[in-house]
Amino acid sequence: MEWIESYEPKNEKETEDREHLLRLDPSLIATNRAAPYHYTTSSMVVDFEADKLLMIYHPIYKSFSWPGGHVEEGEALFYSALRELYEETGILYVKPLSGGPLAMELMPVAAHLRKGEPVDSHFHINFCYGFVGHEDDTLLEVKDNRKWVPIRELDTFVSEAHMLPLYKDLIERMRGIYEG
């Protein structure tokens, strides 16, 4: 709960999500994936020209999306974001845009299959971090599932319509920090 309590909301939705989470029984929230509400992190990485975004192809959603994943027990949010970013993209060097998360999202996850096993519906309490990176940075075993997507073509790569407004808001937040 400390992560939620200390987060400063940046808009009305974040304020509502934070208030909702603070009203919940704390036993419902954990880093454990079995908890109905559990912590995740994601990363938005722009290139130094701020016109491309590093994204991965997400096979469950059949869409390019931000790199991210579940926070491990005992792991700090920032290091979770860095670990997931490295594991999913192989990028070696990134510069954080701020000392804390860009955003906190309460995200419903529908029941689905993961590696052939059923996963019940649940909620992710996602903390998104912003970074700047070089487009020509070394990516481990560069594959088609990760690429630098031109921001102006985001709609072409992201098939999850509900995520586009979130990505665009985060890009604007990042540009405000980066260019400000």
How would you portray this structure in words?
The chain has 180 residues and is α+β, with helices and mostly antiparallel strands. The chain has a single domain (2-179), classed as Nucleoside Triphosphate Pyrophosphohydrolase (Alpha-Beta Complex), CATH 3.90.79. The chain has helices spanning 2-6, 12-23, 77-89, 154-157, 164-179, and strands at residues 29-30, 37-47, 52-58, 63-65, 68-70, 94-96, 103-109, 112-114, 117-119, 122-133, 146-150. Strands 1, 2, 3, 4, 5, 6, 7, 10 and 11 form a 9-stranded mixed β-sheet that branches. It has a two-stranded antiparallel ribbon with strand order 8-9. The protein is globular and about 45 Å long. The chain starts with a helix and ends with a helix.
The figure for the number of domains is: 1
Please tell me what the overall shape is. Answer: globular
Name the structural class: alpha+beta
- Alpha-carbon distance between the two ends: 31 Å
Determine the CATH superfamily: Nucleoside Triphosphate Pyrophosphohydrolase
How many strand elements?
11
How many helix segments?
5
Spell out the helices and strands N to C: HHEEEEEHEEEEEEHH
Q: Give the DSSP E fraction (strand runs of 2 or more residues).
A: 25-35%
Instruction: Provide the gyration radius in Å.
Output: 16 Å
Pfam families: NUDIX
Family: Belongs to the Nudix hydrolase family.
Organism: Aedoeadaptatus acetigenes
Protein name: NUDIX domain-containing protein
